[in-house]
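Students often ask why inverse folding is considered easier than folding. One informal answer: many sequences map to the same fold, so there is more than one right answer. In these notes we will look at a single instance of the problem. The structure comes first.
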C-alpha cells in the first residue's frame, strides 16, 4: 500500500515540476518572440520610474543632459533621453513618450549631410553618433512594436531616410576603423555597437534595400561575436563581462542590459545566450548585499576606491533596469527585489593597499584572489567586512 505521505510527496514533486516547466516556457516565450514591447509592460512601475523615468527631461526644444549647458551639441549627450521612450511605453505614459521623442527629433534636426551629427567630445563624429544610434535605434524598434506605434507611425516614417543616412555613415570604412580602434577592447562598448547596427537593421527592414539591411545586420554580429566568441570579453565560467582586465559592477550592468536588449531581438545569435544572460545576472546579484549596498570592491572603473581612480559613481538607474529585465526574462522575482533596494549611493570599497596588492596579482582573477576578510569603508565609517563568499546576498535561488 502506498502511504499518504508518499502520495503527498509525489503531489508536491509534480507541482514543482509543473512550476519549473511553466518558468521554462515563460523564458522561452520571451526569448523567442522578440516582443520587448510586451515584456517591459510586465515590469514593476516603480522600477521604471527609478531607471527610465529618473534620467531627467529635455527642454522645450528637445535639448537634453549635458547639452543643456550650452556649447557644441553632442549627439551622445542625448542618448539617455531614449529611456524616456521605453518608460513611456512600459507605463503607457504619454508625457514620457513625448519628452523622449522630442529629444530624438531634436538630434536628427541637427544631422549633417554626411549622416553624422558633428564632432563629439573626443573629436570623432562616428564615436559620438554610434552611442546615440544604439540607444535611439533600440528605443525606436520597441516603439514600432508597441501599442503606441499607430500614434507615432507618421513621425517614425519621416525619420527613416535620416536613420539610413546615419547608418551609412557608420558603415563607411573610416568609421569602421575608428570604431574598432575605440571599442574592440570593451564589452559594454562592443554591445553598444552591436545594438546600434542590429537595431538599425530592424528599424530599416521595410525601408532600406535588402543589401543595406543585411550589411547592418552582419556588422552587428561582428560586434556581438567580439564579446562572446572564445570568451573574449565575457567569462562563461562565472558570467562576468571583463572590464579593463578585471570587472566592474556598474559597467557590468551596462553591458548586461544591452546584452539583454540584443538577446530578446536576436535570440539565436549568441550560443547559449539565455544561459549566459542568467549567469551574468547571478553575478550582479552577488554584488548587491541584503541591505541594498552595491559592492564596488576591486572595481576597475567606477565606485569609490576603484582601480583607475575615476570619480564616477555606480549607475544605480542602469543597475535597476538591468535587474528588472533579468527578472522578467528569467522569471526571477529576487531580481526585482534587489533592484528596488539598490537605490542610494552606498558602496563597499577596498583600501588602497589592498587594491595595489590585487592589481599586482592580476585583476582577471579578482574573484579568486579576494582575501577572507579585509578593511573597507562604508559611508566614511571603517568596518571589518567579510569577503563576497560570506557576505549576505540575494542569490539564494541560484
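Output (designed amino acids):
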Amino acid at each position: 500500500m502506498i502511504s499518504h505521505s508518499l502520495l503527498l510527496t509525489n503531489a508536491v514533486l509534480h507541482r514543482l515540476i509543473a512550476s519549473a516547466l511553466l518558468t521554462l516556457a515563460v523564458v522561452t516565450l520571451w526569448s523567442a518572440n522578440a516582443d520587448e514591447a510586451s515584456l517591459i509592460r510586465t515590469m514593476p512601475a516603480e522600477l521604471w520610474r527609478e531607471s527610465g523615468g529618473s534620467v531627467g527631461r529635455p527642454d522645450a526644444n528637445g535639448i537634453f543632459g549635458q547639452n543643456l549647458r550650452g556649447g557644441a551639441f553632442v549627439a551622445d549627450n542625448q542618448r539617455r533621453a531614449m529611456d524616456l521612450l521605453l518608460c513611456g511605453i512600459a507605463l503607457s505614459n504619454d508625457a514620457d513618450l513625448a519628452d523622449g521623442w522630442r529629444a530624438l527629433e531634436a538630434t536628427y534636426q541637427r544631422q549633417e549631410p554626411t549622416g553624422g551629427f558633428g564632432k563629439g567630445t573626443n573629436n570623432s563624429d562616428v564615436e559620438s553618433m554610434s552611442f546615440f544610434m544604439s540607444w535611439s535605434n533600440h528605443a525606436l524598434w520597441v516603439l514600432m512594436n508597441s501599442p503606441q506605434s499607430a500614434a507615432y507611425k507618421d513621425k517614425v516614417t519621416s525619420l527613416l531616410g535620416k536613420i539610413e543616412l546615419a547608418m551609412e555613415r557608420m558603415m563607411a570604412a573610416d568609421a569602421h576603423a575608428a570604431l574598432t580602434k575605440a571599442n574592440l577592447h570593451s564589452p559594454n562598448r562592443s554591445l553598444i555597437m552591436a545594438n546600434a547596427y542590429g537595431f538599425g537593421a530592424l528599424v530599416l527592414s521595410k525601408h532600406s534595400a535588402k543589401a543595406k539591411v543585411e550589411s547592418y545586420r552582419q556588422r552587428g554580429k561582428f560586434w556581438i561575436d567580439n564579446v562572446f566568441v572564445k570568451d573574449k570579453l565575457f567569462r562563461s565560467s562565472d558570467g562576468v563581462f571583463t572590464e579593463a582586465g578585471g570587472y566592474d559592477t556598474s559597467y557590468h550592468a551596462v553591458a548586461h542590459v544591452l546584452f539583454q536588449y540584443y538577446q530578446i531581438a536576436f535570440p539565436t545569435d549568441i550560443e547559449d545566450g539565455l544561459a549566459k544572460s542568467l549567469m551574468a545576472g547571478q553575478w550582479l546579484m552577488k554584488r548587491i548585499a541584503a541591505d541594498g549596498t552595491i559592492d564596488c570592491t576591486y572595481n576597475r572603473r567606477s565606485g569609490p576606491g576603484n582601480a583607475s581612480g575615476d570619480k564616477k559613481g555606480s549607475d544605480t538607474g542602469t543597475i535597476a533596469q538591468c535587474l528588472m529585465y533579468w527578472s522578467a526574462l528569467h522569471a526571477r522575482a529576487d531580481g526585482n527585489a534587489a533592484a528596488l533596494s539598490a537605490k542610494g549611493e552606498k558602496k563597499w570599497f577596498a583600501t588602497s593597499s589592498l587594491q595595489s596588492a590585487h592589481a599586482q596579482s592580476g585583476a582577471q582573477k579578482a574573484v579568486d584572489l579576494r582575501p577572507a576578510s579585509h578593511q573597507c569603508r562604508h559611508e566614511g565609517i571603517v568596518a571589518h567586512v567579510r569577503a563576497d563568499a560570506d557576505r549576505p546576498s540575494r542569490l539564494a535561488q541560484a
